[in-house]
């Protein structure tokens, strides 16, 4: 049941009448969750305790909603605070992150200059980015200072001070990649062939007899377009590195890239993108995705697991290179098939694919970087060896 009210005072009355646990259960997806969170925060905006708490906790234009609510003790706001806490717990569940993190929702200031003070919260709008349920296009749903609800195209949002309700995508990706790696490992498509001291989120270190650990470092990377509208803040990118394990089965590892947050600029992370100890052949794929605040990491990992787990082709590490390349490419294509269909529509949460990266290879230079299959990202890769003691 989705509740749409034009007057904030009516929404407040309903919120304080219905049991908060029941209202939270009515939410079935993240768009609904964020809209209801925005509606709830809009009802708190006139409470001086909320205004004071937000100013206390905000840093770099952003604050954890849970931390702000912990300092709101006005009796008349208790019902709304309880509802918002229930909604945040529901949002965590909808992201497949129950037990993986305790806080997910942030309040971010939009439409206020970098050095300008935040206006009183009873004079700001509260909004969030969601999808139009009919067209599927992303939109901004906002509540003005009088409580009226408005819907805007992403490029037509009025220039007014606004509190944006959104997921803490950095925390979500860190927890989500851990959840995904655990599910992939339990599903048999991520073997723990790792050296001690070399780790990915959710992957245990395993001792190896190898005298040299071979890596491929991500030296430079550039996004042509991060697919993130200005009102939605920084982009949050993660990668899936896929190949064949030593047992001949698909091997997938997810990688968090929290620093890759804007397009049209070069980044020089020097990141351990590929650890060849994880793979049984000399070829892998690297695919980039953008976290849009809706991803259910548990469901995504389970979908990927089904897609690659059903592959009938098992590739021996001793197979001819042509057969290995074919198999590795097929794994990458099956990963794309497992992604939500909406990721390939207007939102473009699928960013890029780099197919068949070879062990020990140098790819691209500063002057002529490696370009992905979609032309949406460019990068420079270089081999690196770490000697075991």
In brief, what are we looking at here?
By secondary structure, this protein is α+β, with helices and mostly antiparallel strands. It has two domains: 160 residues, no CATH class; 219 residues, no CATH class. It contains nine helices and 15 strands.
Question: Your description of this structure?
Answer:
This protein has 2 domains: 160 residues, no CATH class; 219 residues, no CATH class. A hairpin with a 5-residue loop joins strand 8 and strand 9. Helix 2 runs parallel beside helix 6. The N terminus is likely disordered. The chain is built from 9 helices and 15 strands. The chain is an alpha+beta fold and 389 residues long. Helix content is 29%, strand content 25%. Strands 1-2-6-3-4-5 form a 6-stranded mixed sheet. Strands 7, 10, 11, 14 and 15 form a 5-stranded antiparallel sheet that branches. InterPro entries: DUF3103 (IPR021452). It holds the Pfam family DUF3103.
How does the SSE layout of this entry go?
Layout: H1 8-17, H2 20-26, H3 30-44, H4 48-57, E1 62-64, H5 65-69, H6 78-94, E2 105-110, E3 125-131, E4 138-143, E5 149-153, E6 162-167, H7 169-186, E7 212-223, E8 237-244, E9 250-257, E10 266-267, E11 271-275, E12 283-290, H8 297-309, H9 321-338, E13 350-358, E14 370-371, E15 377-387
Helix pairs in contact: 1-3, 2-6, 3-6, 7-8, 8-9
Pfam families: DUF3103
InterPro entries: DUF3103
């Amino acid at each position: 049941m989705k509740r749409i009210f034009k007057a904030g005072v009516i929404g407040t009355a309903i919120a304080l009448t219905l049991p908060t646990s029941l209202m939270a259960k009515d939410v079935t997806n993240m768009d609904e969750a964020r809209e209801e969170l925005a509606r709830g925060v809009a009802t708190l905006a006139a409470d001086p305790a909320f205004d004071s708490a937000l100013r206390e906790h905000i840093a770099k234009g952003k604050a954890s909603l849970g931390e702000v609510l912990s300092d709101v003790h006005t009796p008349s706001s208790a019902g709304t605070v309880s509802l918002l806490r229930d909604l945040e717990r529901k949002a965590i569940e909808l992201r497949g992150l129950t037990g993986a993190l305790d806080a997910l929702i942030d309040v971010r200031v939009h439409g206020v200059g970098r050095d300008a003070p935040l206006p009183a919260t009873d004079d700001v709008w509260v909004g969030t980015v969601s999808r139009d349920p009919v067209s599927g296009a992303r939109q901004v749903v906002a509540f003005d200072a009088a409580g009226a609800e408005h819907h805007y195209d992403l490029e037509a949002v009025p220039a007014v001070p606004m509190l944006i309700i959104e997921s803490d995508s950095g925390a979500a990706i860190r927890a989500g990649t851990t959840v995904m790696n655990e599910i992939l490992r339990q599903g048999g498509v991520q073997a723990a062939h790792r050296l001690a001291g070399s780790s990915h989120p959710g992957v245990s270190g395993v001792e190896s007899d190898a005298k040299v650990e071979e890596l491929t470092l991500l030296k430079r990377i550039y996004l042509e377009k991060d697919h993130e509208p200005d009102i939605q803040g920084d982009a949050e990118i993660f990668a899936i590195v896929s190949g064949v394990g030593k047992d001949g089965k698909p091997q997938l590892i997810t990688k968090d890239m929290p620093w890759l947050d804007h397009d049209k600029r070069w980044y020089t992370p020097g990141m351990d993108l590929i650890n060849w100890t994880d793979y049984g052949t000399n070829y892998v794929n690297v695919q980039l995705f953008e976290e849009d605040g809706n991803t259910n990491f548990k469901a995504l990992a389970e979908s990927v697991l089904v897609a690659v787990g059903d592959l009938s082709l098992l590739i021996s590490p001793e197979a001819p290179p042509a057969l290995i390349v074919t198999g590795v490419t097929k794994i990458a294509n099956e990963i794309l098939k497992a992604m939500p269909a909406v990721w390939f529509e207007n939102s473009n949460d699928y960013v890029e694919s780099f197919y068949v990266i070879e062990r020990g290879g140098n790819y691209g230079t500063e002057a002529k970087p490696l370009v992905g299959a979609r032309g949406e990202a460019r990068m420079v890769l270089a081999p690196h060896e770490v000697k075991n003691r």
